[in-house]
Design brief:
81 residues
C-alpha cells in the first residue's frame, strides 16, 4: 500500500516526521482528507485537529492555525499548536 511522508512542524519543534496512510486537516472551508496520490495543493488551516493514521493508530493533534502543502505524496504541515 502506498503511504504519505508526513512532516508536521511547529515554531518550537518537529512534531512528527514519518509515514502515514491518510491525513485529515481543518481547512478554511471545512475538514478535508489527503490520501496517497492526492493532487498537489497548498491550503491554510484553521483551529481544529490534524488527524493522521500511522501504522494501526490514529493520532490527533490540536492546532490553532497553520498551512499545508501536498506534493508527490509528501505532506508538509506548519502549524501553531
Amino acid at each position: 500500500m502506498k503511504e504519505l511522508h508526513l512532516v508536521i512542524v511547529s515554531p518550537e519543534r518537529i512534531v512528527f516526521d514519518g509515514m502515514a496512510e491518510s491525513v485529515t486537516l481543518p481547512g478554511e472551508l471545512g475538514e478535508f482528507q489527503v490520501l496517497p496520490d492526492h493532487a498537489p495543493l497548498i491550503s491554510s488551516l484553521v483551529k481544529g485537529e490534524v488527524k493522521y493514521v500511522a501504522g494501526k493508530e490514529t493520532q490527533v493533534l490540536p492546532i490553532t492555525e497553520g498551512f499545508v502543502e501536498v506534493r508527490d505524496n509528501q505532506i508538509s504541515v506548519c502549524a501553531e499548536l
